[in-house]
Specification:
Blueprint (H helix, E strand, L loop, with lengths): L8 E12 L3 E2 L5 E2 L7 E4 L1 H16 L15 H11 L7 H22 L1 H6 E4 L7 E4 L2 E3 L2 E6 L3 E7 L13 E19 L1 H7 L3 H13 L11 E12 L8 H6 L1 E5 L12 E5 L8 E5 L2
Antiparallel strand pairs: 1-10, 1-11, 2-3, 4-8, 5-6, 7-10, 8-10, 9-10, 11-14, 12-13
């Protein structure tokens, strides 16, 4: 294991979608999420974290210390039991579990941090079930991603020659619908607290893997529903101290993304101009363009 990180970070991710639905809203028939007041598209933080988790799981597999806590099909209470089994506690003895947790709460919390990458990174609430493992506030937090411009939601009707059931056998084809955005560029902002990393053990190797996962999070996530998606730019603000040298919002304000031509809709990343205001200097903060 490498050294726990000692620098605070903020970062901006710019990613785009072409003819796809980056994050469907189940409350709106799986239409692309949208801010109803402004028309800007939204992608939730948990959606982005899902892509990062999937990449880490793909790259690391069963490597020790890189298990994924929140994944498809996982029963979280069963994940907690791993810590007690490793410590020789009978998970069927509820009284023993309760006593053990009361006396050695930190042992089980620390085990979960050491064993699961996404707990070290994002934190978790593990006070459910009989085998409790406490709560962890992770060093990495993300805001909702928001599109630079208002999006256009399109509903595309498609035909399907295959049928679902025997009662539809007389039909030559059935109809379906896809919800897409012709094009949109999204901006997500995030934070990495070195102070909280001291508590979870998030180290330099974990950080390197996180940047790698962010840059490549859509490369192994392609599907017909999501269309063409890619991370176009990752801008990182690295502080030379544990607690940081400048407010996050001031750093974010130095990065501007504007459409080059307002007379026509954007259809590619090249239709936008990304600028970093280098005239504004923050002592002790380094700006790094990773993608």
């Amino acid at each position: 294991m490498s050294e726990v990180i000692k620098n605070r970070y903020e970062f901006i991710i710019l990613f785009d979608v072409e003819n796809g639905n980056p994050n469907g809203d189940p409350d709106a028939g799986n239409m692309p999420r949208i801010d109803v007041e402004t028309g800007h598209g939204l992608v939730t933080d948990v959606c982005v974290k899902r892509k990062i988790r999937n990449y880490v799981e793909l790259v690391k597999g069963d490597a020790e210390g890189y298990a994924i806590y929140v994944k498809e099909g996982a029963i979280l209470n069963k994940q907690h039991e791993i810590a007690y089994i490793k410590n020789g506690i009978d998970i069927n003895d509820k009284k023993a579990l309760e006593k053990e947790y009361k006396n050695n709460k930190d042992i089980y919390r620390n085990f979960m941090c050491k064993n699961f990458y996404d707990i070290r990174a994002f934190g978790a609430v593990m006070d459910t079930g009989d085998a409790k493992c406490g709560q962890v506030r992770g060093p990495i937090q993300l805001n909702f991603a928001k599109s630079i411009d208002p999006i256009v939601q399109q509903e595309i009707t498609i035909t399907r020659v295959a049928i679902t059931s025997e009662k539809d056998a007389e039909k030559k084809s059935t109809m379906g619908r896809k919800h897409i955005i012709p094009y949109a560029l999204y901006r997500a902002e995030g934070y990495i607290s070195a102070a909280l990393a001291q508590k979870t053990g998030f180290d330099e190797d974990d950080l390197k893997l996180f940047w790698e996962a962010v840059i490549n999070m859509f490369e192994h996530d392609h599907s017909a529903a999501r269309g063409k998606m890619a991370v176009k730019k990752l801008i990182v603000f690295k502080h030379d101290s544990l607690l940081g040298n400048a407010p996050a919002y001031k750093l974010f304000d130095t990065v501007k993304v504007v459409r080059k031509c307002e007379d026509k809709p954007a259809r590619s990343y090249e239709d936008y101009e990304v600028t970093i205001n280098t005239d504004v200097k923050f002592e002790g903060v380094e700006v790094i363009e990773m993608a």
